[in-house]
Design goal:
It contains 16 helices and 12 strands. The chain has a domain of about 260 residues: Aspartate Aminotransferase, domain 2. The longest helix is centred in the last third of the chain and has 37 residues. About 35% of the residues lie in helices and about 10% in strands. Strand 4, helix 9 and strand 5 form a beta-alpha-beta unit.
Amino acid sequence: MSVENMTVTTIFDKSQEGRKGLNLPVLDVEAKTTLDSSLLRKEKAKLPQLSEFDVVRHFTNLSNKNMAIDKNFYPLGSCTMKYNPKIAERVAGLEGFSSIHPHVITNNMNEDVQGILETVDMLEKNLCEVTGMKKFTTTPQAGAHGEMLGIMMIDKYHRSKGNKRKYIIVPDSSHGTNPATATMVGYEVITIKSDANGGMDFDDYCAKMNEDVAAVMLTVPNTLGLYNPRIKQLCEVAHKYDALMYYDGANMNAIMGVARPGDIGFDVIHINVHKTFATPHGGGGPGSGPVGVSEKLMEFLPDLGIKKVNDIYEFTTGGKNSIGKISPFFGNYGISLRAITYMTTLGGNGMYNTSSKAVLNANYILNRLKDYFDVPFGNKCMHECVISAKTLAKGGVTAMDIAKYLLDFGMHAPTVYFPLIVKEAIMIEPTETENKQTLDLFCDTMIDAVNLAKKAPADFQHYPKTLGVCRPDDTMAIKNLNVRYEQ
């Protein structure tokens, strides 16, 4: 079947006149409505008519067409699509956790929520141990929300000293949320270029550091999958100007149990628990972005916390310098619960092993593919690697073409065109959970793509061939999205 002739069969296409999935009893009371007549339909809704079995089979088959971490290799660089262990789902589903009403907490009915508060306390203490921070809050609803909280606390830190500052420094390889967050909180952004080794240029950094800089936002390892050997020096330079160091925790999966940002010199960190501690990501569930701080920022934490007094957990509120309330309750508690389950299951040795395996897997992929793609920054990486299709693109096959090709082989595409400083970037993060057989299948498929690109580059315009929608115009699909069924 050609790509042009492929169509998606909708549930409306399967409708059969008179077919029903449910027979309702005859109405034995007078039908009344209080709705204004202008709000009522003049005609019945044109809903599809199907049996219950038709509906179940239709949506089950649709779900099987989706890519999912439980059924596909998901090597998204920087996004860290880790497998979500089912033990965490079972714990989060226990009735004592899942059925409690949030307002039980706000009503100070402590006897009903002691177990819940204990798990929040466990998570905060464990995160302090893993990161080297002095105190954590679980209130942020997602990583970007936690990032904003961190910069707001930094802003209040400087204001409390009568020294409102103007700039935030970020590297040119940063996640896009970093400059966006700095701008939202009212700062101007100074961007530092990367050096030949992929790290933030130290001389450029020192030249642009000044007493108007409030903070430096860094991801460690960075989005190129590289650990900057001068990271402690970067922190020392910032601290000489009383600028604070912000750690974007997106890549903690590389150093969890190995190195602690607090020991390196960072003052505040947000943790993407879906990336590091295997809670659902993206469409799989709500986010959670706990934030940890060093001692100098503790007084600025949000005003909802807990403490244990005489073996009873009690609520605390912030002092006069608290940033105030940024969200209700303790963030997305079900996600926090999954994270503490994951951490408790692994233990300290397990976390070290997890990071070691993540780094091993990424280096294995890099070394298998280095002779087939451009490698912008050496032959070693941390938990993710960045390769480039720059040479292939000269022959007509782009990074996007490679990404589309992979879909026909049951693998989600890696991240492409990020980081922005690498032309035709392909960013791959296998995580620690994938075995050698899966990595070899992925590498073999990537190598096959390169060989095909050299022989028949035009063929890539027809990939993927097996999906209902194959090569849409990406821009038009966003600007003119139409999900309405025309009968």
